[in-house]
């Protein structure tokens, strides 16, 4: 049996969210409808943006789940990613800090969904 994990992020505007995530990830969607767009992150992993489940999401509503982007390259790569995102105007919730598992930072997408960048295990 083939297993795939699809992480779904609920957004108000799937095309706008896809442009945001596509820019951050440096990739184009692998599947698109008007309200559901996915990115193929590699074997068995997809990121889906869905605007059909929850309408009128507000960034003012606290989000407690996170999408974590695990990156190679150590602290230098993480700091470079932070600087790049910061220069693009991405909302930064917490600057790079040591969280016990390594250097990490926390950002938010257009709907307030949390995005953690952390070292790959």
TrEMBL record:
Residues 1-120 form the VOC domain. It comes from the Bacteria. Pfam families: Glyoxalase. Signal peptide: none annotated. PROSITE patterns: VOC (PS51819). This is Glyoxalase. It comes from Streptomyces montanus.
